[in-house]
TrEMBL record, chains A, B:
Keywords: Glycosyltransferase, Transferase. Belongs to the thymidine/pyrimidine-nucleoside phosphorylase family. Type 2 subfamily. GO terms for cellular component: cytosol. HAMAP family: Thymid_phosp_2. It catalyses: thymidine + phosphate = 2-deoxy-alpha-D-ribose 1-phosphate + thymine. Coiled coil: none annotated. It comes from Chitinimonas taiwanensis DSM 18899. This is Putative thymidine phosphorylase. PROSITE patterns: THYMID_PHOSPHORYLASE (PS00647). Gene3D superfamilies: 1.20.970.50, Nucleoside phosphorylase/phosphoribosyltransferase catalytic domain, Pyrimidine nucleoside phosphorylase-like, C-terminal domain. It holds the Pfam family PYNP_C.
Length: 501, 501
């Protein structure tokens, strides 16, 4: 294909998520000369950069025959503007494609091969179809320890990596799926109050009603650049910021986006995902919280134990000390589900208020205690006591205020203008709570985009209830969202199952 | 999600190939209320039909906040027009998704499970990511015989099925990859001249410079409806028509579209692909031609033999008699590569012209002979002689004219206005011919869209050549296409490798 043949970029603003798509009029000379049809892969050159994109042909006046457009991610990657020239060439043969095929056919991949696949994942040279094939070929336990180590290292190598001038740098991570489980800001406050360093980079919600970054943003700015983060950590020993802009293991974000719709679990990829983020963030000692429950991400202790062992083993090979803790994941932690409601809960715990959710406080103390022990801030077995002392004395709250101030100032927690109470249909006791449906209801109510929206839970497992007693309250900022959430809640009455005693 | 919330359909005409995509303004009330982002899967309702589509959000004035659009395939499936109301709902839980996951994790699937996956493939409920995961999970030899039988049966069941009032109905199929190998019309002419029934439904080119339907269309109309096909077969005993509009094993077309970019081979899926098309077309006895060569689709005799055995075994279980023949796939057959050039070659063979390509004639006689034997038109071992008699006597040519007349009239073969000769750079002998690069050159010259375009090959393997002796001629209808093809040819001088003797 001739490099001389060019088309002018026209902006259409179509967001396809990560996948690079190029749009051309089906009648343009390039499509006609090459016989290109939808789904052909092309190399696109513009602004002295290039990328590989999938062709969508346009059969309307949307694009002239001398024009081409790009999906938002592709346009941003090239940095082209309206009117810029785009040139096209055939896709070169990719080594990563044949390595991927080898993996599909059951061969083990070495470090170089995995690094090539990860690099081509990050630079968009592999299509979503290739990535789906890759995660499928790695599903279950089809990555052995050596491959998992190599994949983790490759994922770290394909992104930015932070380093800190302090030791030890501790961290904690929760293997998701439990609404309201917002222990991280409390843990950061406690362990940094004890003098440890915990620069926490966290994520926004992907499929949940709130990520730690969403909840923290209710209380303080979280979108800080690296210089600002360094200043905060220098001043306070810790931070709770959004890590999404720092290109820490970007391959992880891309693979998660493919695994999620396929609903695939891969031990190896989960381990590589968690550990690559932690190593990239400069952590040295990490505690992994593995909540187990029928509607949590990890559904059995056996799976959790296998995962814990794998995390420890791969971490050790890569110089990262990993400890895991298997916790109760049968019901939400705390009362609030949604950014502001969760922020309210964690403030109550930090401020030692009488109405602080006991389970959130206990979970945070358990995790903070283990992190204190891992970080050498106390003797083994004394972590929980030490954590409790730091919390009860108000030192943790003082420390949290200092962190928020350093990040840009502590904010007031907003309240949703609209609420609706859901009550028990009959007397009995709470037999089961479906974490997934509850999370869905909170999202329909507007979380996390509407920070004050979500669900406020009033009961716990095993608790006796009367007919008409409040089970939970919907919080919303817009009537439409309240209505959606209420309708979905009424269609899923069993989200909180009341057993007739 | 509320069914009351609707958007108006606006036509954008974006062709994404088979995948259903829905476009919405990122600021529309549905995206905002649901927190939908690019790549969410949605059920789309309109015109009293529904389908599942992947969301692309639009961040421009391309769509108003009360509008939505669909990819061409999705718009056609729903049959909606500009201004029609589209409603949206959450994607229901699909049984086929969890069965797919089971296969990914290494479980065997039963007939019901495979039928569900195939049905959801055809009706577009599984995304391209799911299909990529499916073909990956079946790659290599990960489908056993029982699964291959069940997959084949499911693919037949998910489409239309023809039946004929005559017996036996014979067919042949070539496992592709060999340019110019256009034996089918000759075989049809010979075996129907012997009184057998061979209603041949063939395909257009997908990645090659010409499919059998493209070549046959140079000589007669091939886009006939079922009633017309029945009339042709009733009159002549055979036909060579395009099968693409008849919905014979539509799942096959979809899976091929996914496998091709991944370049995956799966014994089970290849067998299911071939046999489902044949069974759907009403064939009873089928000969499979397996050309073996380093640049053909099948690269070793071992692979070909394993495939032949699998085809026979699965066919037998499904009531289809399958015989296979392993042939030489080291170089193109005949001289022409491209619809009109191949049509010219096959006419020369049928008309017993002195300049008829000997290899094409021999290959056609070999295959026709085997089909005659399979169909009981002659004693075993006498097929080739019988085929030769039918060809040499002019009966096959008479029969071919009758078929063309019945299909709508024999046409003159067009000639390309532009040609360019490629000559040997030095003396020697032809050591190797790269089928794939030669096919690519023919496509760049305009084949198959420009019927007269392509490559006319003047040498065969082992042939001695002088410096400057013609190797092949490029044929094109447009100067730009001739230029592209010539440039690519000059960059790939080794497509025909001349050994210094």
């Amino acid at each position: 294909m001739s490099h001389e043949a060019s088309l002018r970029y026209r902006h259409l603003g179509i967001d396809t998520a990560h996948e690079y798509v190029v749009y051309m009029n089906a009648g343009c000379h390039i499509c006609r000369a090459e016989g290109f049809a939808a789904q052909t892969r092309l190399e696109v050159h513009g602004n002295e950069r290039s990328l590989i994109a999938t062709l969508n042909t346009v059969h309307s006046s949307l694009l002239g025959i001398d024009e081409a457009s790009l999906s938002v991610s592709a346009q941003q990657a090239l940095g082209v503007q309206a009117g810029d020239a785009l040139r096209f060439s055939h896709v070169p043969v990719l080594v990563s494609e044949s390595d991927l095929r080898a993996k599909i056919y059951g061969q083990r991949l070495d470090a170089t091969q995995l690094a090539g696949i990860v690099a081509d994942t990050v630079n968009g040279r592999l299509s979503d179809l290739h990535l789906a094939a890759f995660v499928t070929a790695c599903a279950g336990d089809r990555l052995d320890i050596a491959e998992t180590v190599a994949l983790t290292r490759a994922m770290v190598g394909a992104g930015a990596r932070l380093s800190w001038q302090r030791e030890p740098v501790v961290d904690k991570h929760c293997v998701g799926g439990l609404p309201g489980n917002r222990t991280t800001p409390i843990v950061v406050a406690i362990v940094t109050a004890a003098g440890l360093t915990m620069p926490k980079t966290s994520s926004r919600a992907i499929t949940s009603p709130a990520g730690t970054a969403d909840t923290m943003e209710v209380l303080a700015p979280v979108d800080l650049d690296l210089a600002a983060i360094r200043r905060v950590v220098e001043q306070t020993g810790g931070c709770v910021v959004w890590g999404g802009g720092m290109q820490l293991s970007p391959a992880d974000d891309i693979l998660i986006r493919i695994e999620r719709p396929l609903n695939l679990d891969s031990d190896g990829q989960l381990v590589a995902s968690i550990l690559s983020k932690k190593i990239s963030a400069g952590s040295q000692r990490v505690l992994i919280d593995l909540p187990v429950g029928p509607t949590a991400k990890v559904r059995s202790s056996e799976v959790a134990e296998r995962l814990a062992q794998r995390l420890q083993q791969v971490g050790a090979t890569l110089g990262l000390a990993v400890d895991s803790i298997i916790t109760d994941g049968t019901q939400p932690i705390g009362c609030g589900i949604g950014p502001a409601l969760e922020a309210r809960d964690l403030l109550r715990v930090l401020q030692n208020q009488a109405d602080a959710p006991a389970d959130l406080r206990e979970r945070a103390l358990l995790l903070a205690g283990r992190v204190l022990e891992m970080g050498g801030a106390c003797a083994p077995g004394e972590g929980r006591l030490r954590a409790r002392a730091l919390l009860d004395s108000g030192l943790a709250w003082q420390q949290f205020q200092a962190i928020c101030a350093a990040q840009g100032g502590l904010r007031d927690v907003p309240h949703a203008p609209l609420t609706e109470l859901i009550v028990a249909p009959h007397a009995g006791s709470v037999r089961q709570i479906d974490n997934r449906v509850l999370a869905r209801i909170a999202k329909l109510a507007g979380a996390p985009a509407s920070a004050a929206a979500g669900v406020d839970l009033h009961v716990k497992l095993g608790q006796p209830v009367e007919a008409g007693q409040p089970l939970y309250t919907l919080h919303a900022e817009a009537p439409g969202e309240l209505r959606y959430a209420a309708r979905y809640a009424s269609e899923h009455g069993g989200v909180i199952e009341i057993a007739h005693d």
